[in-house]
Design brief:
Number of strands: 8
Strand order of the largest sheet: 1-8-7-6-5-4-3-2
Shape: globular
Distance between the termini: 5 Å
Number of helices: 8
Largest sheet: 8 strands, parallel
């Protein structure tokens, strides 16, 4: 299991402390939520923050774009330091073209689905993507309650991947409401990547919480 703490839940007045914590932990990736206040009802951070943080780290930058017209900014996020760039199927009119452009700019391509969006929406591009991010809360804010239907959605995604005989199986990422209580079941269903925000940064001992999550692998 790949663990990706979400910087959206970190202390924005001291991001260096959050980076130091993740760098000195068993966490594998950084999850960076980019919000524009239009696609989702919140605004977070963008390319300048990612570019400033990248030289201070050694781990993967998993950048999740919750924005309209994500295709306009692909090259900019590559330059800023994104290793994985995930766009929402709901925000991408020409999704195949966007995926190809992400890869052409040297990044792995991910596609995110909101809780109401069916797995069938990505069946025609499942062989082209490196990661599928299943939103297990409604996107926009951290600290929301986990949506129980996510377990069934993971199973449906695996069924799609197997039915299409996908050679390079995309990673399955769960984003939202991940806790010590549901992480093991998510892994058992087939999830590969768990995004943990409040569970890590809201903990009295974030390092111990990360260790507990990683021990579930």
């Amino acid at each position: 299991m790949i663990l990706a703490p979400s910087l959206l839940s970190a202390d924005f007045t001291n991001l260096q402390s959050a980076v130091d914590l993740i760098e000195n932990s068993q966490a594998d990736w950084y999850h960076l939520d980019v919000m524009d206040g239009t696609f989702v009802p919140n605004i977070s951070f963008g390319m300048p923050i990612i570019k400033a943080l990248k030289p201070k780290t050694t781990k993967v930058f998993d950048c999740h774009l919750m924005i309209v017209n994500p295709e306009k900014y692909i090259k900019d996020f590559a330059t800023a330091g994104a290793d994985i760039l995930t766009v929402h199927v709901e925000a991408s009119t020409h999704l195949h073209r966007t995926i190809q452009e992400i890869k052409a700019n040297g990044m792995k391509a991910g596609v995110a689905l909101n809780p109401h969006t069916p797995i069938s929406s990505i069946e025609d591009i499942i062989s082209d993507i490196d990661l599928v991010c299943l939103m297990s809360v409604n996107p926009g804010f951290g600290g929301q309650k986990f949506i129980e239907n996510t377990y069934a959605k993971v199973v449906k995604l695996i069924e799609l991947i197997e039915s299409r005989n996908v050679m390079n199986r995309p990673l399955i990422e769960i984003d939202g409401g991940v806790t010590l209580d549901n992480a093991k079941r998510l892994i058992g269903c087939g999830a590969d990547v768990l995004v943990a925000g409040n569970t890590v940064f809201g903990s009295k001992d974030p390092i111990d919480t990360i260790n507990q999550l990683k021990s579930l692998d």
